[in-house]
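Worked example

This section walks through a single chain of length 360. The input is the sequence exactly as stored; nothing has been trimmed or padded.
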Amino acid sequence: MMTALVIRKLAAMPRLWRLVAVLGGLLIALALPWLIYPPIAMDIIAWALFAVALDLLLGFTGLLSFGHAAFWGSAAYTAGTIAIKTGAPFPVAIAGAAVVAMVLAVPIALLAVRRSGIYFAMVTLAFAQLVYYVANQWRSLTGGENGLQGIPKNLFGLDLSDPFYFYYAGLPLALLGLWIAWRVVHSPFGRVLVAIRENPARSRSLGYPVDRYKVMVFVISAGLSGLAGGLYAISHGFASLQEVYWTTSGKVVIMTVLGGIGTLWGSTIGAALIVQVEDYVATSGIHLGPLNITGPGLITGLIFVVVVLLFRRGVWGTIAHLLHRRRTVPDAEPHLSCTTAPPLETGTVVEHEPAAAPKQ
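Given that input, the structure is written out below as tokens.
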């Protein structure tokens, strides 16, 4: 009884939970290269930002994109090219890569938002494959199948060849991207996105340009994906066709769903889980009698199936839902992310059904 009472009181303090979660996340991020191999820690940070960027579309706007590898990969090539050709500090190269990803996203978004559901996903996938074809054929710039090699880690003369030191040099960029995503979600703009996810027709009837909002969040998501892709390429010193291949888009979707769509921070959990599992299987393998599993695809697929069957809202989404249920009873059934559509603006008139007369 006492434990349940304590949990109920803590659940009633969302601000405290947010502060604890933020501080805990920062401590984990700072300690990560001390706990695991630093390059793997940097991969987790980059993929986490990539998954959070996708969650802006999938979880908060209701748009499933299978083409985000185009922005991740194009940014990886752009950051590598800027770093090699100009010798600019790596933050400048990554910033330029994010801008290129946003510019690339504009025409794709203008065409893709005309469709919804699986048709939107297929349009984004088609454009991603087009980017893959261009990257494969433009060998003078991308290196083709050989990739872009020898990307330097320049930062005003500092020696960042050690992955341990580069992790702390690149971490502020990832934290900046995460803060931008958080600020988008917790702004009036983010509230409109949630309303569009719940009921696009009503949002349009209230005067909100739904397609314009979709284009804007698509471009923001692409920019954050580009930030993550540039950081990933600089960290590895290499950019390959794998970065723009369609499996990269599928991988980040799995990360987002595993963590919990519409939870933002759940994507970081999904990214950490997938990256760690892939590293373990690739290096050690799993031996079950005569069966030797050395490819990560089977294991990650099994984890995905188990989580989807047992935790419908994902890992973090399930935790958030349990805490949500211990607070006041909601007026409406929450989304899978436990976020409901708030009023679009103060003073908006919302029509309600008249109450039914009691039976005599």
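What to look for: The first helix runs from residue 2 to 11.
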